[in-house]
TrEMBL record:
One of its GO terms (molecular function) is sterol binding. It comes from Gossypium tomentosum. It comes from the Eukaryota. This is Oxysterol-binding protein. GO terms for cellular component: cytosol; membrane. InterPro entries: OSBP_sf, Oxysterol-bd, Oxysterol-bd_CS. Belongs to the OSBP family.
Length: 296
């Protein structure tokens, strides 16, 4: 931790957040999740503290109402974390979804944007649960993002975002149901996302993968499960599978994703892709059509 004095203020910098102290008032400015962040455990003390939380909890227990000690909280709300997946992008991949003339190219852009919204969670830390009626709003250029906690029991969050220039609308409503299975916490993400390209008359529906928090034997966090993206208007759909390392960490690929894009009516595969969602994800043309081999 480094202390720097600037303009009479005392600024304390760390790797995870910045604290500014002025006139005995503290302001916490939390940086967004980094795509290069590490989800693995950093210290043996972390796994010991986390294991102690579950010593009296039986496998299969629903952790929805489980109260996490403040020691494990990030200085931000779940709403901010959800919003960051939309407005914190190095490249504006959302606006690209509406720029291609071909329905297949637009669908590929939607799949690429969907994969890019994933973030590597930090093991041993969780955001604060939003209170009922809490909101989070961010405007950046043509993009407006609004989130609200619309239910407390169960905790349901809603998101509405618009890109006025590209005529894009994003609607999301989700509920997270965490359960303890004895060696890990499986956070099932329920709900749907709709991405609407208003000028094209297309609506893309998609779900989210589950969040797997491994405690034993190898601590870490991974996105896991199947995701389906479909657009009834252009007759295309995509099937994605997110994988993780095996129980002992000896098999499997960290942050892996594989899948395919196909025609809904004929089930004919157009493209296949296999790689890592936080790195390079190449795609390969399967069917005979006018689209060349590219990168998803």
């Amino acid at each position: 931790m480094l202390e720097v004095k600037s303009n009479g203020n005392l600024m304390i910098r760390s790797k995870k957040w910045v604290t500014i102290i002025k006139d005995e008032k503290k302001i916490f400015l939390s940086r967004p999740h980094s795509i290069n962040g590490d989800s693995e455990v950093d210290s043996p003390k972390s796994i010991q503290r986390i294991s102690s939380l579950f010593k009296n909890i039986k496998p299969g227990f629903d952790l929805t109402n489980f109260k996490l000690p403040p020691l494990f909280n990030l200085p931000k709300s779940h709403l901010q974390c959800y919003g960051e997946t939309v407005y914190c992008m190095g490249t504006d991949m959302l606006s690209r979804c509406n720029q291609a003339d071909s329905p297949v190219d637009r669908f590929i852009s939607v799949v690429a944007w969907n994969i890019s919204t994933l973030r590597p969670p930090i093991f041993g830390f969780a955001p604060y649960n939003p209170i009922l009626g809490e909101t989070h709003h961010v405007s950046r250029a043509n993009l407006n993002v609004l989130l609200e906690q619309i239910s407390h029991h169960p905790p349901v969050s809603a998101l509405h975002a618009t890109d006025e220039k590209q005529k894009i609308q994003l609607i999301r409503c989700q509920l997270c149901v965490p359960k303890f299975n004895g060696i890990a916490v499986v956070n099932e993400v329920r709900g749907k996302r709709q991405l609407k390209l208003l000028s094209r008359g297309e609506t893309y529906e998609m779900n989210s993968p589950d969040l797997l928090i491994r405690i034993l034997p190898t601590p870490g966090v991974d996105w896991d499960g199947d995701v389906r993206i479909r657009c009834p208007e252009n007759g295309l759909e995509a099937e994605l599978h997110y994988g993780h390392k095996s129980f002992l960490g000896l098999r499997g690929s960290h942050r892996s994703v594989k899948g395919k894009i196909l025609e809904t009516s004929t089930k004919r595969t157009l493209f296949e892709f296999n790689g890592n969602w936080d790195r390079y994800l190449p795609s390969r043309q399967i069917s005979d059509n006018c689209y060349n081999e590219g990168q998803c």
